[in-house]
Amino acid sequence: MAGEFEQIATRLHEIAEELAELSIVRLRDAIDAGGDELPVDDKLLGRARRSVLKAANLLESGGSGSAATDW
Predict the structure, then answer these.
(1) Running along the chain, 71 residues long, what does each successive block of 10 average in pLDDT?
(2) Nearest CA-CA partner of 24 in 41, 1, 3, 4
(3) CA gap 20, 12 in Å, rounded
């Protein structure tokens, strides 16, 4: 089962990278459009990326995180 967790964790890291790249693209688009504010979905993409990384780290640690930090 550990091998399955590693595969899923790897995929989650790839998804986190995709989210980071999308965030960069959105920021560049906003700058190119002359904007001086962050895109509306910047916070959403950041939160999603952190959540995906948290899930990957949880799988990699074998679920040894405490219940208080799992949320």
Answers:
(1) 89 98 94 84 95 97 60 45
(2) 41
(3) 12
